[in-house]
Target: Cobalt-zinc-cadmium efflux system protein
Amino acid sequence: MGAGHDHGAKSLGEAHRGRLLWAFAITAGFMLLELAGGIVSGSLALISDAGHMFTDALGIGMALAAIFAIRRADGRPHRTFGLYRLEVLAALANAALLFGVAVWVLVESVRRVGEPPEVRTGLMLAIAVAGLIANIICFLLLQQGAKESINVRGAYLEVLGDLLGSVGVIGAALIIEFTGWWYADPIMAIAVGVFILPRTWRLGRDALRILLQSAPKGMDLDAVTRTLNEVPGVEDVHDLHVWTLTSGMDVASVHLSINAGADLGDVLGEAREALHEHYGIDHATLQVEPAGSSKACESLSW
Model:
């Protein structure tokens, strides 16, 4: 027997679709501007920032594609959990893409340290300032959604890296302009790459954790078992599984052995309420069995 919500309900990513659309348009436009400006000015820091903006635009585009695909999956009976996992796959793809760009920037920056080229700082500075404004707008658009959806968080982290990258490019342009120290350009590019790598790692790790159906981070399964054991009429709790379907959607399945005199409806209702109230689990499949039947599940060792 199960208790839960309608899988056709909106995901957290869907709730932020409009903000993602605006962020995509702004990011794609300024990515082209920074790329052209970096090539003309000869600034690796500006080209690296354009590279990050490209991954931003692609990442936000993948996030939007996942949201639209999820909407199209509603009402299709063979997709019993919908396509919510596409949000997680998009986040993992974002992490892999951003990791690759960061590594390329680091390698190219180290190569340039030995022979830094001349940079047109006036053009570099003007485009970096415009890019900073664009990144601040996107940052504000995605900030709230990043707290709720791993999909939006992937795009948000990329924008955050870009925002700091724009600050770094501005700093490098000012240093070169007033001191003539050309090394500031490749060194700033290295700093941006080093900053973004650990955040990319954490995003990829969180996405893999969901895809591998690990228990939600911070979830104490022993505590969940104790909570269900405290439900009146429950004699034993076994075969408990808790995992995350996508951001904000934790689900569970569990077997409950109940006393002979216990009311089935009361046990199900109170167990469902306990899972919701203590652990935020709104979809749970609860299998109720007669007391003493838990040994029948021991053969399922996987």
